[in-house]
Each structure stands twice: as C-alpha cells, then as structure tokens.
Amino acid sequence: MRIYAVGDIHGRADLLARLLTRISAHLASRPVSNPVRIFLGDYIDRGPASREVLDLLIAEARSCRSIFLKGNHESYLTEFTSNPLILDHWQRLGGLETLMSYGITPTLNASAGTQAQLAAALRRVLPENHRDFLGNLETSFTCGDFFFVHAGVRPGIPLSKQREEDLLWIRYDFLLHEEPFEKIIVHGHTPVTGPEVHPNRINIDTGAYASGRLTCLVLESDQISFI
After folding, report:
1. What band does 107 get if pLDDT is binned at 50, 70 and 90?
2. How many Å separate Cα 96 from the centre of its chain?
C-alpha cells in the first residue's frame, strides 16, 4: 500500500493539476497494487479557481481510490447557501474568490438583502456533483500508524471521540503538544514554509495559494517522502 496525502489547495487548480500529473508519473515509475490518495481539505477560497479544483477532485475520484476530508473552509460554502449572513466572516477567509469562480460577482460589505441574493445565485449555479462532493466529505481517516485530519486533534481526547470543531479548526493546543498521540497525525490548516515532520505529527500545508507550493506526502511501509 502507498498513500499520497495532499495538503491545503485553496483554489489553486493549476498547482493541483500539476501535482496530480506528478503523482501519476510517480506511480508509473514505481507501481504499487494499492495506492490511495488522501486530500486534507480546504479545497476552496483564497485562490482564483475553487470551482475548477472541485471539478478536478471529482474527476480524480472516478479513476483512483481517493479519500476527501473536510476542511473548515468547505463548511462555509455549505452553510452560506442557507445562512447568507455568514458572508461577513466568509469574505475575510477568501469566500469572495470562491463565489467569483462560480461566475457570481459579489460586493464588499454587501447588505443583508444582497447577501441573500448572492446565496440564491450560488444555489442556482452550484452543480449537483459539487453538492454531493461537499456533503460526503469525511472528517478523518485512519490507516496503520497514521491519522489523517484537516487541522489536528484535541490532546487528551481519544481519536475516536474527537469533536468535528477541533478536527476542522484546532491550532495552538494541538501544535504545541509534544507528547505522542495514539497515532501520528497528518494534517494541514496551519501554513508552513515547508513540510514539517515532528515525532507526533506531520504538517503538509505549505500555503499553496500564496507560496505556489502544493505538497504531497508519500507514505509506504516505514518510508516518508514528499512530492
């Protein structure tokens, strides 16, 4: 078995397409019977091509065994369609770029009425397969000695009892914890200049939307490498 785990994409369809090609080339040169791709969430927002990112991931799922985890940014897109007032907060996290990728032209500091109109427009143009994709995201995935999640875990809580809020949002309580967890935690959410390998966790969010670097962690047997 070989795992390819991909960090936060944030609307950079160009980087994702390039990385998927490199993963395919890696597999072609080093075939394995059971490859699995795991995507750690935050597919949308900030970058210019969130819609295209979801199209690429949906296409990837048709041809390869893929696990898609939920990031905190995905929760905003889903909620906005029924609660337009969250746009005030979502726009500070890159939500306007996501709306524009669907052909919707938002305005800064939109009134409540305008926010409702934008939410209605998104409901109209959001493809059914995008709705299904967003509605079926997992909050974590376990394989061997590794636990894959978007943000991290709450120290002192069994992995099986973690709250979704922590899995999607936790930062410093998790990052500053130096003791072992039940498994090595593979996560994103907190951008770093290069992938970080710690005794208890591996961070592969390399800030793709700003840095132009989208990282893939490769796990096989006892070997760790990066693409």
Report:
1. confident
2. 18
